Amino acid sequence: MRSYKNEKEAESMLSGKDGLPHFIPKKYAMRTYHGKKTLKLVPVIPSLIFVHASYRQIIAFKQSAYDHLQFIVMNWEGANRYITIRDKEMKSFIRVCEQHSDDTRFYHPEDIRVEKGTRVRVHGGALDNVEGIFVKVTGKRSKQLVVLLTGVMAVSTTVQPEYLEVLEE
């Protein structure tokens, strides 16, 4: 969903008593306030909010609590459809995003070179059981685990090869 220039207000409303489960991908960024530089946790993509609820639940929330959320649609086979993401993909995406490390990068699907990518699962560490694609990302010297939200966005992070299990398609 999208909350144009109001992600802080939308986040507080979604976190409230009548709120819905949601996730906003964030990263640490250097910001200057009143001449002082500080490290702040900011949204990766302004106004983007992932909401885990049914269409009816979201409409009810919009009518009763916060009307500024907008559905995001994508043209799929000639028709506009709401973007939905499978739970398994979203769980892996959230686990990688929550690392908030300097080696975590966000990409649009067309920016990733996946031709020789292999589907893998991580065993051990903070990303235990996360599935993704093990690839070399342009501009990075190390190998990366890329977790894709099909057709929407991707996130990558560095993973040690000894933690990986190759999955059969």
Give an account of the 3D structure:
The chain has 169 residues and is α+β, with helices and mostly antiparallel strands. Strand 8 and strand 9 form a beta hairpin. The chain starts with 6 loop residues before the first helix and ends with a strand. The strands form four sheets. The chain has a six-stranded antiparallel beta sheet. The chain contains three helices and twelve strands; from the N terminus they run αββββαββαββββββ. It has helices at residues 7-15, 55-64, 87-97; strands at residues 22-23, 26-33, 36-43, 50-51, 73-76, 79-82, 105-107, 118-122, 131-136, 143-149, 153-158, 164-166. The model has no long low-confidence stretch (mean pLDDT 79).
How would you summarize this macromolecular structure in one to three sentences?
This protein is of the alpha+beta class.
Descriptive labels:
globular, 169 residues, 34% strand
Number of contiguous helices: 3
Proportion of residues in extended strands:
25-35%
What percent of residues adopt helix (DSSP H or I)? 10-25%
The termini sit apart by 31 Å
Q: Low-confidence segments, ≥5 residues, pLDDT <50?
A: none
Question: What would you call the structural class?
Answer: alpha+beta
